[in-house]
């Protein structure tokens, strides 16, 4: 059994879901691990990870709108405001989703379902460069 | 150290929590791994995983009702409607919970607390057959 | 490759976030694993885990207040009441966050971002002694 670490840099265009299934799969394919466990870790507190439907773009639209309504960008609600009005909502949306996903690997690929894609969920308004750590273990 | 993959098919009866602790434990017991890490992965975007209280059935009832209120099945709220009125709420409830759980194994058993059970959370109205991938690593 | 299990007992002072980054890091440092995967598992259904901002204490205050509003301690909303008015909200807040985190390890340390801390989120009113299982795998 062996393990390998990798760093992925993902440019976001402000608030919204960015699919990273392709980037993760491409790297995985080059590692020649047939069976294993892949962990995806987001090193931020205002961006998070989600496995979501990868077919209809309306799902992403609805999902973004849902989080906007559930965690409003209303400065009157929060004490923390140092980094802008979008920062505290970003922390809360991160708390409600995940910063880490572990996905089994079989036949050299993530065992995602037919409609599952891996997404980085940017919660800030401005574009950011996000750092994702990949840890792969297997043989 | 060795690893093993397994596929579990779980029949649901429509929306609600289905305890799968027994199925997972039974399989684990047969693998004779004393210390390790077990990852449970749900290959769907309208069903998810939860570790919840396994004692009072009222907890499950309240939990299902809470998610009904937090993510209403109200078609006026969502654009995505192709697969039925229960589909977009199912994606959102999946986003708010998890599709993956990793549980340490000690003495051949998951280290669940006394009141913790592993549940599959079906978010669609109709019964489904759900595919869960188990990845076990240890020795 | 080798693995090791450890049990951490954390005393909470009632509802709120307790940072455990230090306790986890200290244990990790003594294990001399350079590259690996660390899994943190909370054995409870009324306390959970979160990776959150570790700089401004206002973030924790806002986060606690947000969960108070999202999952009110209002007995009229829940059937389950056997263990006190704070118990069912505690289960729901646990469902909305996580009981497990897996964090890659590089150069002997968790690959946390500059602003990420690991927190135990106590959801009950009374102080509790919480049991966290750490599983570390690597070499």
UniProtKB/TrEMBL annotation, chains A, B, C:
InterPro entries: UPF0047_YjbQ-like, YjbQ-like_sf
Full protein name: Secondary thiamine-phosphate synthase enzyme
Family: Belongs to the UPF0047 family.
Pfam families named among the record's database cross-references: YjbQ (PF01894)
Listed Gene3D superfamilies: YjbQ-like
PANTHER family: UNCHARACTERIZED PROTEIN YJBQ-RELATED, UPF0047 PROTEIN C4A8.02C
Protein origin, superkingdom: Bacteria
NCBIfam families: TIGR00149_YjbQ
Signal peptide: none
């Amino acid at each position: 059994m062996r393990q390998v670490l990798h760093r992925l840099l993902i440019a976001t265009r402000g608030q919204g879901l960015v699919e990273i299934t392709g980037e993760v799969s491409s790297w995985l394919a080059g590692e020649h691990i047939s069976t294993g466990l892949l962990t995806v870790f987001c090193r931020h507190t205002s961006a998070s990870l989600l496995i979501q439907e990868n077919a209809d773009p309306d799902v992403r639209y609805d999902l973004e709108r849902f989080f906007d309504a559930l965690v409003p960008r209303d400065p009157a609600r929060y004490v923390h405001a140092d980094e802008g009005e979008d920062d505290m909502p970003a922390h809360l949306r991160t708390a409600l989703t995940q910063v880490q996903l572990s996905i089994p690997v079989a036949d050299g690929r993530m065992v995602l379902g037919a409609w599952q894609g891996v997404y980085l969920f940017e919660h800030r308004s401005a574009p950011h460069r996000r750092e994702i750590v990949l840890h792969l273990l297997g043989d």
